[in-house]
Amino acid sequence: MDYFDRPEVGLNVLILDVQSKKTEFPELPELSELVLSAGFLAKVVVTATIDRPNPKWFVGKGKVNELKEIVAGRDVHLLVVNCEISGAQHRNLEKFLGIRVITRTELIIFIFGERAKTSEGKLQVELAQLYHLQSRLVGGWSHLDRQKGGVGLRGAGERQSEIDKRLVGQKIKLIQAKISRVSERRETGRKSRAKGGLSRVALVGYTNAGKSTLFNALTSSNVVAEDKLFATLDPTVRRVEIPGTGDIAVSDTVGFISHLPTLLIDSFRATLEEVVGADLLLHVVDASDVNWRDKIQQVNTVLCEIQCDQIPQVLCFNKWDLLAEAEKTLLPQTAVGVSSKTNFGIDFLLEELSRVLGVNAPYSVWIRAEDGASRSWLYSTGAVLEESLCDDSALRLRIQADNWLVGQIKKKGLAIDVEEVASLSRMKQGDF
Question: Of 162, 195, 252, 377, which is the most buried if we count CB atoms within 10 A?
């Protein structure tokens, strides 16, 4: 169910980019990308610098008149404001300009509504709409007389706005109860995976960093991966086998964005629980984004807000194939470079995840060429990563094994040495 009228996709948009020295507002490039992701066309951009909000229109009268002239002279049907404005300011702008006005938060909710496919996703979008509607009811019905008493009402003197606030509050509680049941099912699934000894890895990162594409590369899945903001709303969990290690559970989650509205964090808390319950966060960064440092900080800010900043992270720079060699040297040396489209670096990323999770270090095992039984046995365990022939005709098998398997290898009298892999994934980055 929608609780505010949806603009038609394809409309020409006038963007109002509000800036202030005292308050940090979302940046224009991101808002423009949100507009495009929603299916609108950014026709005109107007920048307004304010010291403090105008009570009537948020921006000054001169700027509103400028917007009026643009609406009269250009083919625009929708104004998108990059920040939150009050309900009264919203109505005043629409009445004066004669076109539909939406805020950045409404734009994001609109995109979420377009992307949500599962019942859970639709519930979370509905809850976000209700939270937003609840904040708009104050003063929204001041033109109505007081209502008479009746069944379900508090009695004479109750305003329409009070009735609506109460009904919205009841609806919020109903949706929260439904989402809570979904959350309980997720928690049961997480406990089941934990009992099975599965370590949990959650992909996090800025929206459109390529998380879903990387998720598909890691898990051989085919979840929707599009070059648009918020392509993924519903979390997906898959098992990933690391040779010699066993399975880990990897989850793809909703992307983050700067100035993420609190109501969206509250609405999608059930989805974000996949992040909260993770043993390790795989922080995916778009290596081709010139603002990757800011994006990393913004993601970490959201992680702090949902109290996940203490969970260990592996920093992964995706879209490695889009970088020149000189650009690669500017990225953090502690990060792992991968290309989800070409599968470059995926094996090394899995090794890094295994190492950080503290499961099963890589080892080298030497076997006599004639010892086919030992070679066959090692392959049957699924532990062998690669095989090479040594100068003395012995076979060197590179494996990934837990303590039990190491013990079995030693019982068989085979030569085995642990490898130093702290920088293994980074050594190969320059070989792209």
Answer: 252
